Amino acid sequence: MSSHHTGALPANPETATLEGKNKVLGFWLFLGAEVVLFGCLFATYIALRNSVPDGPTAQELFKLKTVGWSTFILLTSSLTSVFAIIAMHRQKLGQLLGWLAVTVLFGLSFLGMEIYEFYEYVHEGHKFTTSAFSTSFYTLVGFHGAHVAFGVCWITLLIFQGMKKGLTVVTAPKFYVASLYWHFIDLVWVFIFTVVYLMGKVGH
Q1: Is 18-52+64-202 CATH 1.20.120.80?
Q2: Average pLDDT, the chain
Q3: Which end of the chain has a smaller Cβ tally under 10 Å, C or N?
Q4: How far is it, in rounded angstroms, from Cα 79 to Cα 14?
C-alpha cells in the first residue's frame, strides 16, 4: 500500500501561498458571521423555550441517551478530521483521504440519528408549528443539521479532488479550511447539547 507522497511540500502547505493564506483568513471571517447567526438562533431559542401552550415540553420529549450517542459520534468525527490534517502535514495523501472518509461516515451517522430523532418527535406531537418552543427548536437544531449535511458534501467532493489532483499547495488550504469548518459545527453542537438538551431535561 502506497501512502502517496506527492513531492516535497512546505511544512504548512495550507498557508504556503498568498492564496492559501487568504483562503484561511477569509474563512475565519466567514466563521465570525456564522457565530453571530447561531448566536441569534440560540438567543431566540432561550427566549422561547418555555413557550409551550400546546404539545410536549422539552422534559417530556428529549431522550438524552440518543442525543448522547449523536454527540459522541460528532465529537469522534472531529478527532478523525484532526488525524486527517496530521496526515496532510506528513504529506501522506492516502491517510489524509482515509481519515476524511471516516469523518464523512460519522457525519452521515449523526444526520441519520437526527432525522430519526425528529421523526420520533413529530409522532409525539412536537411539530414545527406546534408551539414557539418547537419552532425555535427545529430552526436551531435543523440549521445545525443543514451545516453538517453541507460539510459532508463538501468533504466528499474534496476527497474526490484529492484523488484526482493529489496534495499540493492549491489543494492543502481546501482540506485545512474544511477541517476548520467541521470543528466549528462540532463546537456549535456542544452548545446545542448543553443549552437545548441538558437544560431542557433538567428543567428551568
Answers
A1: yes
A2: 89
A3: N
A4: 19
Place of cell 471571517: 29
pLDDT value at position 15? 62
Length of the chain: 204
Compute, in degrees rounded to 10, the torsion defined by CA atoms 33, 160, 74, 119: 90
- What's the chain's Rg over C-alpha atoms? 19
**pLDDT band of 57, cuts 50, 70, 90:** confident
Q: What's the rounded Cα separation, in Å, for the pair 110 and 72?
A: 9
Residue 31 Rama label (left phi>0; alpha psi -120 to 50; beta): alpha
pLDDT tens, 88-129?
999 999 999 999 999 999 999 999 999 999 999 999 888 888
Residue with cell 437545548: 196
At 38, list the grid cell: 447561531
**Helix locations, 124-202, DSSP H:** 132-165, 171-192, 199-202
- pTM score, two decimals? 0.89
CA distance 50 to 175: 41
d(CA 178, CA 136) in angstroms, rounded, equals 28
Say if residues 174 and 151 touch (Cβ distance below 8 Å): no
- Work out the number of other CB atoms within 10 angstroms of the CB of residue 138: 19
| Per-residue cell: 51 | 413557550
Domain boundaries, the chain: 18-52+64-202
Residue 10 phi, psi (nearest 5): -65, 165
